[in-house]
Amino acid sequence: MVRGEEILISLDAGGLHVFAADLDSFRNALTAENHTLKRALTDPRLLSGIGNAYSDEILHAAQLSPVALTTKLKPEEWERLFAATRNTLRIWIDRLGAEAEKEFPEGVTAFRPDMAVHGRYGQPCSRCGEKVLRIRYADKETNYCARCQTSGKVLADRSLSRLLGSDWPRTLEELEALKKK
Ligand SMILES: [Zn+2]
After folding, report:
1. Hey, where are the domains in the chain?
2. At what angle are helices 23-30 and 75-100 packed, to 10 degrees?
3. What is residue 4's predicted lDDT score, i.e. its pLDDT?
4. Protein residues placing their CB within 5 Å of the ion ligand 1
5. Region 87-112: what's the mean pLDDT?
6. Is the N end or the C end of the chain the one with fewer CB atoms within 10 Å?
7. How close is the Cα of 140 to the center of ligand 1, in Å?
8. pLDDT at 97 over 70
9. What sign has the CA pseudo-torsion 143, 89, 64, 39?
């Protein structure tokens, strides 16, 4: 159990630890800068230990878009995001902890077959059955369900794919700049 938690929080760059945070401090950390949820959740200066895979799982659990802007979230969406972040990390700490008793887990941020949405491009959403979509960038991808998270809007259209083509953080900033106009 402890070992799983250590893995999840091993990239400590000064970000908030969600299990030590309340809703207000969580919201304050994520709104310090106006970013997409995907970027804010995975920024280790804001939140501790949430990688690409877990951020997909959290956003799917919260039913929020990866490209929603932190400054635009409604109060009930913050409550959903905060609860989903804690619940998702707790589930994975427990799973990895149970496995670590048998053998040390490797590549915990990569695809795992029991994830709800991450790494499941083209497969049915675990909640609604719609096909899981993706935004590809560099050697990674973000997976999401349009029906559950973006009111049916497909984010991986051609212009967005081109925009996100090279570097995730940099192109996300470009994406955010576009969305502000
Ligand atoms: Zn769905």
Report:
1. 2-180
2. 100
3. 55
4. 125, 127-128, 130, 145, 147-148
5. 72
6. C
7. 21
8. yes
9. negative
